[in-house]
Design a protein that fits this description.
This protein has about 750 residues and is α+β, with helices and mostly antiparallel strands. Helices cover about 30% and strands about 25% of the residues.
Length: about 750
């Protein structure tokens, strides 16, 4: 064993050499030495590193696990702990001049198993390595000389700092307290004699000696505690008898007079402290009552609350009431927080009224209204409405209509709103503030604002409020709004720029058309004069609507036809196997759509209804409101809401396309498991089954005017009047006219 350097603060325990190093690792651990640090009472480890690379090493990361005296791993299941050595400098092909010291975290460490996992060079390049089989294992001398830290402390306490219990190594060699290994009777480093160092080589003798020292230490520790406890108990008994006799014989009369004197001088803290007796307190409640009343009278409500808190069951309501009365009367103005905590409704409303009046005088109208709205009860509502009406009238006089509308919504009694808002809707409409005008109309109940707005409102506004504008639109306006210039079924039908209905299978169908709809074997065309033309399969009578007049919209399902009349009634023709023609008794309808086997519609109040097949839940329409657009696919229904969002019902595969997150949608078309939508900005949104080859390409279209869906395809008309298409069931053109539109 190699002797350690002289260091009187550290006792050398053992030394270990590393096993063969890893060839690909630029560094290896030359040696590890273990010491007992007498100052820290900890075990420490010193490592020396050798650099075998051509670049200096400045940092190392080592995975280590600690071993006990039996060679077992200490710590977690794997036992690995990360040791990071920063600030190193080890020159190429050199061994580090100094060494790195690590304080070991466990008291009973006898050895260490370590692996270098990363090395950093001076230029910042970091090399990382896997855990490999080279270790620092405890040598036998270390295990033979092992003692727990508790044993070392006992030995030092018994024998002194210069007398350390360390077994003899071998032969005449022994370990001195200075850290040197002595070979003679006296240590050559410090001169300590061998017999003074209490060298003991037998572990049995050591164990017996340690047990005796532990017992001696326990007895020595117990004696002073036992003596102190006895003195404490005796003192308590003596003081108890003296205190009881003093309190019973001399205290009450003296303390009563002194307490009264403190109370007369408003020194309530001294009064409370001086009044303490064996009965807990003398005049305690009387002192607290007088203190609370005094500080409420002087306006120091925080101090009054502090004294009230001294009670076993404090009740602050008296303080809050005093604060409220003082604030209302104007006696004190900085107690609003306490005043607003009062439970009495009249006082609470009085405080808020005063705050509202002060805010109004200061020109803080918003704060004045906030205080007024916080008042309770019917009287509070009346006062709040009075403040709000004054504020609204003032804002209207300044032409701040939007601000006035915001305050109108907070009124409890809106009966006076029509009078003060007379003319506000027309002013907002004239300024193009349709949303604000409609908000006022919803509060006042004045629906005529929509009639006033309709002539000047743009198509976007009409689309968002179609259900509101509908009563003021004539038949021609309704036809234009509901018109569809492109639709797809078993064939594709569209409108040309000169008003002709052009079918991909049948060619030119008729002229003067404004809307088209395609079913599975038939098509419907609505003409400008409100008449209907039907073409194609009439097996179920779905084309019996031909030449019908007074129509504003048409919709074709697979084998049925739906006709919307000018008076809001619905007529149905064709197959009714699934009840899809059960809409013939509907009234108040403003828009219609037909799926493969179901029929849906929007009613005048913005709600929706449906009939026919509900196998996929496509007509589960209960509870929907503010609907301004509706479309039916083969097995689904799509609703467009006033805010531009949509909802999909039915075919659940569509639900997974996150179409509910779509925004600003103006029109949508649905097929069999896919749908396409158009936003107000002309952007295309697509969602569908990946199996429909090429349909997703529609998301790349631009400058689109209208969209449509086939069973496995999508179509659109762009700003130039050409038909765009993609998918797997696109029909071949049969006429020059159709081919010209698809160039």
């Amino acid at each position: 064993m190699r002797p350690a350097k002289k260091n009187p603060q550290r006792v050398f325990l053992s030394h270990a050499q590393n096993r063969p190093y890893l060839p690909e690792c630029p560094a290896d651990i030359v040696s590890a030495a273990f010491y007992l640090d007498l100052k820290l009472q900890k075990k420490v480890m010193k490592l020396r590193i050798r650099n075998r690379s051509d670049r200096p090493i400045t940092a190392l990361t080592i995975l280590a696990r600690y071993l006990d005296k039996d060679g077992h791993v200490i710590g977690a299941e794997n036992g690995f702990i990360v040791l990071r050595f920063q600030g190193l400098y080890c020159a190429p092909h050199q061994t580090s001049a100094g060494s790195k010291t690590v304080i070991l975290p466990y008291q009973d460490i006898a050895g260490i198993e370590a692996y270098i996992t990363a090395a950093a060079a001076e230029d910042g390049v970091i090399q990382e390595f896997q855990v490999t089989d080279y270790t620092l294992a405890p040598v036998q001398e270390m295990l033979d000389n092992y003692h727990e830290e508790a044993d070392c402390r006992i030995i030092r306490a018994r024998l002194g700092d210069n007398c350390v219990f360390i077994p003899q190594f071998s032969g005449e060699n022994w370990l001195c307290a200075c850290g040197a290994v002595a070979e003679a009777e006296n240590c050559s480093a410090c001169g300590l004699k061998q017999k003074t160092a209490h060298i003991l080589a037998s572990r049995k003798k050591t164990a017996a000696w340690l047990r005796s020292q532990r017992m001696r230490n326990v007895v020595l520790k117990i004696i002073p505690y036992a003596a102190a406890l006895a003195l404490f108990i005796g003192g308590v008994l003596v003081l108890r008898d003296y205190g009881i006799r003093y309190i019973e014989e001399t205290l009450p009369a003296d303390r009563l007079s002194v307490t009264r004197l403190y109370m007369s001088e408003h020194r309530y803290r001294e009064a409370l402290g001086y009044s303490v007796t064996k009965n807990n307190a003398l005049l305690r409640e009387e002192i607290l009552d007088e203190a609370v009343a005094y500080y409420c009278e002087t306006g120091d409500f925080a101090e009054a609350a502090a004294y009230e808190q001294c009670r076993d069951n404090p009740d602050y309501e008296t303080i809050y009431e005093s604060a409220a009365r003082a604030f209302i009367a104007g006696t004190f103005t900085d107690c609003a927080d306490y005043a607003l905590s009062v439970a009495d409704e009249a006082l609470y409303n009085g405080v808020l009224r005063r705050l509202s009046e002060e805010a109004a005088r200061a020109g803080k109208q918003q704060d004045a209204c906030s205080y007024a709205l916080a008042m309770r009860g019917s009287e509070g509502e009346k006062y709040a409405d009075a403040v709000l009406y004054d504020t609204i009238t003032s804002l209207l006089g300044k032409s701040l209509y939007e601000d006035a509308v915001a305050y109108i919504s907070h009124l409890h009694d809106k009966s006076g709103v029509p009078a003060i808002c007379r003319g506000i809707e027309s002013e907002l409409v004239a300024r193009g503030k349709y949303e604000e005008a409609f908000t006022v109309a919803s509060i006042t109940g004045d629906a005529s604002v929509f009639e006033l707005a309709y002539p000047s409102a743009g198509s976007s506004t009409v689309r968002h409020y179609y259900d509101k504008f509908y009563p003021y639109m004539n038949a021609d306006a309704r036809r234009d709004f509901l018109a569809c210039e492109l639709d797809a079924g078993s064939s594709v039908i569209c409108l040309t720029s000169d008003g002709k209905a052009l079918d991909s299978e049948r060619g030119i169908l008729c002229e003067k058309a404004i809307s088209v709809s395609a079913g599975k074997g038939h098509v419907l065309v609505l003409q400008k004069d409100g008449t209907v033309r039907a073409f194609g399969d009439n097996t179920y009578g779905q084309c019996d609507c031909d030449t019908l007049s007074g129509v504003i919209a048409v919709a074709a399902g697979d084998y049925h036809s739906i006709i919307l009349m000018e008076d809001g009634s619905v007529r149905t023709y064709g197959d009714n196997t699934y009840g899809q023609c059960g809409a013939s008794n509907w009234t108040g309808v403003i828009a219609i759509a037909a799926g493969a086997r179901h029929t849906v519609a929007i009613l005048a109040d913005g709600s929706v209804c449906g009939c026919g097949s509900d196998k996929s839940g496509q007509i589960a329409l209960m509870g929907y409101e503010n609907v301004v657009g509706i479309t039916a696919g083969d097995y689904c229904t799509v609703l467009i809401f006033r805010d531009g969002s949509i909802s999909v019902l039915g075919n659940m595969s569509i639900e997974t396309f996150a179409s509910r997150e779509w925004e600003d949608v103006v029109s949508v078309a649905a097929g069999n498991g896919h749908l396409i939508a158009l936003t107000s900005g002309g952007r295309i949104l697509y969602a569908g089954t990946p199996g429909y080859a090429g349909t997703a390409d529609a998301s790349q279209w631009s400058r689109v005017r209208t969209v449509a869906c086939g069973s496995e395809s999508v179509y659109a008309i762009d700003a130039s009047g050409y038909i765009l298409f993609c998918g797997s069931d696109v029909p071949d053109p049969i006429s020059a006219e159709w081919e010209a539109l698809t160039q």
